[in-house]
Amino acid sequence: MRQEAMNVRKSALASLSSKEVQCLEQARALLYTLSPAEDALGRRTREKHITDLFFQTRAIVEVRYGDEVCRTNYGDELSADAKFLKSRLADGLSIEDIRSYWNQPLLMALLIPEIHLLAKTLYKESLSKDQKIGTIDAERMFRKSNVFYGNPVQDVKQTLKIRGYAENDAALFIEFYTRINQWQLTLDPLSKPKVFSHSEASLNAVIRNLIAAGQI
């Protein structure tokens, strides 16, 4: 049964277009950037996780948006959608942020937040196994030192109020992704520890304050 599943996976991989293969390689690289240490699951299981996540996301893209899973013009559509823009612009995003993020291959645009969630799961599982830390404490440790993306309104309703966070700690819209990555690259080795050693409940709160101050 296991060999049969491996054969099916190999066949699926062989059927990918060159653009899809590029997306898969980017997805692998991103996961190892976010979760570089060997975790409780091991390398082989991590590879299975990222491959399965890739094909699950690819299937969702096909159902929702059609067969052209690597199209690069979806940002142009969303930048003209007033309903979609409203809460994002209010949170500090620009139309160019939104257009730029969603004009990358659509498959990759939808994969990035899912990879962040996978990295979070691996982080929490590793803490649980190696340090015997409970789920809520692991969540707090993750948010303290990692950017967390998602829908901020849903995050406040479903998670933050239950666990004692403030609205500033809520998930950030994924369209902040490029801007935040560029900001992190500008941090020198001396200033980075100061930024990441903060009194706020989450790194997201620090970032929101910097966005409001025009520093990100």
What does this structure look like?
The chain is mostly helical and about 220 residues long. The protein has 12 helices and no strands. The N and C termini lie far apart (about 50 Å). The mean pLDDT is about 90.
Write the layout of secondary structure elements.
Layout: H1 2-14, H2 18-34, H3 43-65, H4 74-78, H5 82-90, H6 95-102, H7 106-130, H8 135-145, H9 152-163, H10 177-186, H11 192-196, H12 203-212
Helix pairs in contact: 2-3, 2-7, 3-7, 7-8
Unreliably modeled segments:
none
Could you spell the SSE succession in H and E letters?
HHHHHHHHHHHH
Helix content: 55-70%
Strand residues, percent: under 5%
**How is the main sheet built?**
none
Overall 3D shape: globular
Q: For this entry, what is the oligomeric state of its chains?
A: single chain
Distance between the termini: 50 Å
Mean pLDDT: 88
Count all strands and give the number: 0
Alpha-beta content class: mainly alpha
What radius of gyration results from the CA coordinates?
18 Å
How many helices?
12
